[in-house]
Amino acid sequence: MGRTFKINKGVNAPMEFQGLKAQYILYMGLLLLSMLFALVLMYLVGLNFILSLILIGAPGAFGAWKIMEMNKTYGENGLMKLSARKRLPRVIRFRDRVFVKRLKTLNKLNHVQ
Known about the structure:
It is built from four helices and two strands.
């Protein structure tokens, strides 16, 4: 009889919970935590509990829907790629040729070695 080994097939798989992937799990958790904090705050102030639920439930449902939509649209890494793309400059302008000349000399030096 040979040995039997367990193979863990989900080692490199992205973390997923109820369809939410990667950072969207954190966003949903923060949304739920902020909703709970707002509900407790409204209750301590003295607002009616049912009114507090309605005032928190509508924006909370919209937030949850928006997070699920972003999860479906952008996927695991798409939102980070989108934010990185927004930070890239559209145009690079040179006021003089000194920078380009330095690049050419550096390029020649790197090819010689």
